Amino acid sequence: MTRHQQSGFSLITILMMMVVLVSLALAGMNSSLVQERMAGNARDRNIALQAAEAALRDAEADIEANLTVASAFVSACTGGLCLPPSMTSNSPTSQPLWQTVDWGTSAGKSRAYGSVTGATALPGVSAAPRYLIELLPVLPPVSGQSASLGNSDEDAAQAFRISVRATGLRASTVVILQSTYIKR
């Protein structure tokens, strides 16, 4: 029996096929990891959105139970009760208040969820949602009613703008919602 000299062509072919298979497997793993991160981010954003919605309801309950036009609304936004920048007598601006206020807990310019209404803490969020309430101008009378005849102040509707900032599981996931609430 004679020995033939081996050239190793099949070895190179198999090694190339193995490299291709490994790269396909790594691409599949990378794709599934990206999809898992996307699903986690969507879940975290949904939690922050639900927390913001709960804070809007908390602020509405606060308005119904505690606030009137005579409440301490000031341009300095003390205790989360604010006058919009467009209603201040000194240098009125149209810049939205929610962009200028410090949402931190120590600033005292916003209210924490449940701090006034006693609502229970929300599970699964990195920090309690915070909100501020802006006093808007009194609304005009409804259609068909005179502005000055036969209307009492009790019939006037008062509008409030609520701005809420909430976080999800991670502090970097932030949702800001805004709503207008009308109290009759």
Give a description of the structure.
- There is one protein chain.
- With 184 residues, the protein is an alpha+beta fold.
- The chain has one domain.
- Helix content is 34%, strand content 18%.
- The chain has helices at 9-66, 97-100, and strands spanning 81-82, 111-112, 130-138, 158-167, 174-183.
- Strands 1, 2, 3, 4 and 5 form a five-stranded mixed beta sheet that branches.
- Strand 4 (158-167) and strand 5 (174-183) form a beta hairpin.
- It is rod-shaped, with a radius of gyration of 29 Å.
In brief:
The chain has 184 residues and is of the alpha+beta class.
Keywords:
184 residues; 5 strands; alpha+beta
What does the secondary structure layout of this molecule look like, with pairings?
Blueprint: H1 9-66, E1 81-82, H2 97-100, E2 111-112, E3 130-138, E4 158-167, E5 174-183
Parallel strand pairs: 1-3
Antiparallel strand pairs: 2-3, 3-4, 4-5
Count up the domains: 1
Low-confidence stretches: none
* Gyration radius from CA atoms, angstroms: 29 Å
Q: Report the principal-axis shape.
A: rod-shaped
- Helix percent reads 25-40%
Tell me the β content. 15-25%
Number of strands: 5
Give the count of helical stretches: 2
Helices and strands, in N-to-C order?
A: HEHEEEE
- Give the terminus-to-terminus CA distance: 107 Å
Q: What summary fits the major beta sheet?
A: 5 strands, mixed
Secondary-structure-based class equals alpha+beta
Mean pLDDT: 85
